[in-house]
Amino acid sequence: MHRTGENRMNATPVEESLREAAAGAIADGTVGVVIGYGHEAGSDVATPLFARTPEQARGLVFDATCVGNLAIYLPKPEVRALGRTGLVVKGCDLRAVNVLLREHVIEREDVFLIGVRCAGVCEPPLHKCTVCPVHDPSGCDVTLGDSVEQPTADASRANALVAEMEAKSIEERWEFWKRQMTKCVRCYACRQVCPLCYCKRCIVEKTTPQWVETSPHLRGNLAWNVVRAFHLTGRCVGCGECERVCPVDIPLGLLNQKMAGLMEQWFDFQSGLAPDEQAPFTTWDPNDPEEGIL
Amino acid sequence: MTSEEPALQHVQADLEPGRLIPVDYRPDKMRIEAITVETPDVKTFRLTFCDAQKAGQFAFLPGQFGLYSVFGAGEATFCIASSPTRKGYIECSVKSAGKVTGELHQCEVGDTIGFRGPYGNSFPIDRMKGKNLLFIGGGIGLAPLRSVIGNCLDWRDQFGEVFILYGARSVDDLVYKEELETWRNRTDVRTLFTVDPGGETPDWDGQVGFVPTVLEEAAPNPENTIVLTCGPPIMIKFVLNSLTKLGFSLDAAYTTLENRMKCGVGKCGRCNVGNVYVCKDGPVFRCDQLQALPQEF
Amino acid sequence: MNDVSETKLYRLEADWLDAALGALERDGVEVLAPVKDEDGSVNLAPVTASSEVATDYLNALIPLKSVFMPRTEVLIEYERAGVGDVEVLPGAAPAGQRVVLGCRPCDARALVMLDSVFNWDYEDVPYRARRDSTTVVSWACMDPGPHCFCTSVGGSPHSAEGSDAVVYLAGSGPALLQVVTAKGAAFVESLGDRAQPAADGTALPEPPELETKFDTGEIKTWLDENFESELWEEVSLRCLGCGACSFLCPTCHCFDIVDESTWKHGERRRNWDSCAFCQFTQHASGHNPRPNQTTRCRQRVMHKFKYFPDRFEQVACVGCGRCAQNCGVGQNLVSILSRIQSEEKP
Fold first, then answer.
1. What homologous superfamily is domain B28-119 in, according to CATH?
2. CA distance linking residue A50 with residue C228, whole number of Å
């Protein structure tokens, strides 16, 4: 993030192998497009690059500015119209792909996954990178890059930001969230960038009845952001894109981290670690305790 | 008028260059006087202004539209479906499709709704005088035509021959059945009513066939004729083809566009087709001018 | 705009800001100035003391338009009066007298464009009321940011268009104030002896240099001919379809009108809306004139650089750079326009 998008002449070894893998997959017809990262003047972070020819694949980069989660493009009809999709994924991005597979939004044969081992992006590394459980994406069609040491999971560090918030009094928390939610302009960048917000018609766009008020006042904003957090509970993979793209800097990640923490605590479940995982809210198990059910 | 008339010619009554009309988005209250069930999902509402002064001042031209509101549900745009020659009330025909239209269908006689308008331009009544008139309607698209047909029939001696061609998907979907009967019984109006193949009932005595096909079979004379057509976009497209085949010039044909609108007065930014705003430059467009626009409607 | 007569140029004493705030508060005038919030964002907010005012900022996060066209506002209210009837109440009371002290010239210039739309044959009463009751004093831009391109769209870091007065804050030295309109002259009066007519021959500082990135005339020529072009598909592929660029744009003005009510009481609100949203133009029937992101991206560029100039003889862009700065996927109006320019001039 701290390097503006200069166009480096010299590719790193991982970039060379990335460009080669992408160009090859396009050239031999394995895919119609490879979606990866490129550099563009005027953008501090790497921008999505849609390579449809081997030449275009020469523009692919992989470095600390490759923050975005490109899995967002997989369900889009206009992307699918380009042919089978090749997708450059970091471990964290792969978790979103796994949920899309688990929820049958896409099928495995629709996508050619080019995994890149990643120790973390940005300098200093993002919170999600410091607690990332999948530095090494597994199950991809190609995996590139040097092996990366995977630190042992540390739940207390993963939940540190939530714990910090929960140490505050309920009044302080309410004041904090009131202030944050008041800022929301309802641009829906959080939803649009979320790989798991793929509903064809979002609940906020349903008007008969009007479930969520669309006005950007505190009441409507609270309803919207809470509904969204609930709909992502047990699904969100913590990629942090919603928080990154929020133009008014609402710490949306905190809501998702809180819910992810509860999922781990109550169901021993982390979303998106495998495409065939059994998600608690969408899996019926005859042994489920039926507390709370009539 | 000729085909050289400017593309954005404005015939809206209220608009004069340099004079600003204030809009505060406050609707006038109107009372529902009568409700006619036209089809399983279309109702016609007869409305009168609650405020006597407003009722006295109100005037509109055929083709103009308004924003009708159900308080609590919101506003929606419909043309005024009654004739300006019938004073004291307006009518609108509404298909139940979304939030506001659904709520409107729940309203009863005596209920109060809101109205803002009239907005937009109108059918070219002046140009139509002395000419033969061909009206081609499809489905609920008869609503704006009904306003201008009513106007013309009330001034019948000002126009030449009048031919009304109207079609719907099925007999059930024909709107204004009473008026259709009245028009059919007039000796000074030629009518042709049709339903799509499969939409007929055993006792249907009209045509069976799509509107453009029926139009080509009827082969009206293009000479000295003005065409007004309104209906679903796909029907309009084929009707214009048929008109061209029959020798009509599209600079003598008019239609209306109904894009989604929120303000009705050129500000909210969603009804534009290219640089043309349906709310201010339309909703009535000459068909040759329409064809010159980006095909984004 | 720089050929202002010398009598309209004032030299401001060091404590002019305190004097202004004091005088305006005594007169019951609300002052909106750039304030840095707890999260580090700068926005226009009510202030009463000069210590609250941020001076070292590039631009406000939320543009000046929000002062005249709030992101949500009550147009009318109503109370149910028995079954099937309502009493319609007037909307929110018009804003009292206000002074915006410290917007950037690009944001003020956007008001010229908004004025064109909101007074286009029909005068938008709530907008006009706020414009009439508000004085806009902008702070000339001395240090444009990496995304700025005001000079490419007919503006300047020191543009006075849309401002009632422009203040040139010159580091530790004395500030200059340029009066542009009668409202600006009235503002100077509120400064009392803290503003003195500048000495004969006092010149306005030269605006900082800013690279011109494209020519709007050439872009318009290309847009006139290229409603259909492969470029639209290419540049729209990565677009997320969110409203960040339009909501943070000082000239984007599209809005929605919605009702929100309980059984007894209801409000009709006007909210910001965006042409990037998939439902923006969708009919109740399901038909959508702009059914995909390609047509929606095209609309945004066309509206700003073709349709708006066609109707109002000005582009609807002031080059503030917020769209590029805030796009989650680095979608960049400047790069699209530069590409269009290269297509026009191969």
1. Translation factors (2.40.30.10)
2. 21
- The Cα–Cα gap between C143 and A245 comes to 26
Nearest to C242 among A68, A187, A215 (CB): A187
**Predicted ipTM beyond 0.90:** yes
**What residue ranges of chain A have pLDDT lower than 70?**
1-9, 293-294
The CA distance from B281 to the nearest CA of chain C, in Å, is 12
Q: Work out the number of other CB atoms within 10 angstroms of the CB of residue B68.
A: 26
Q: Please, which pLDDT band fits residue C1 given cuts at 50, 70 and 90?
A: very low
Two tokens, residue C30: 């609300």
Domain boundaries, given as residue ranges, for chain C: 6-197, 216-344
C125-132 vs C105-118: helix crossing angle, rounded to 10? 140
CA A69 distance to own-chain centroid: 5
Q: Name the minimum distance, in Å, from the CA of C88 to any CA of chain B.
A: 8
In chain C, positions 240-269, which contact chain A (CB-CB < 8 Å)? 240-244, 246-248, 256, 258, 260, 269
Are C257 and B275 an interchain contact pair (Cβ–Cβ within 8 Å)? no
Fold designation for B125-292: Rossmann fold (3.40.50)
**Strand ranges of the sheet holding C175-179, from the earlier edge strand across to the other edge:** C42-46, C30-36, C98-103, C134-139, C165-168, C175-179, C9-12, C195-197
Q: How far off is chain C from B17, nearest CA to CA, in Å?
A: 7
Q: DSSP string spanning B44-64?
A: EEEEEESSHHHHHH----TT-
* Closest Cβ–Cβ partner in B24, B72, B296 for C289: B296
- Contact criterion met (CB below 8 Å) for B240 and B250: yes
pLDDT in tens, B102-151: 999 999 999 999 999 999 999 999 999 999 999 999 999 999 999 999 99
Report the DSSP pairing between strands C165-168 and C175-179.
antiparallel
Interface of C with B in 10-69 (CB under 8 A): none
Q: Do C75 and B98 touch (CB under 8 A)?
A: no
Give dist(CA C114, CA C106) in Å, integer. 13
How much is the pTM?
0.93
Backbone angles phi, psi at B94, to 5 degrees: -130, 125
Residue C310 at interface with chain B, using a CB cutoff of 8 Å: yes
Determine, for residues A68 and C147 on separate chains, whether the beta-carbon distance falls below 8 Å: no
Domain boundaries, chain B: 28-119, 125-292
CA distance C99 to C31: 5
CB of A40 less than 8 A from some CB of C: yes
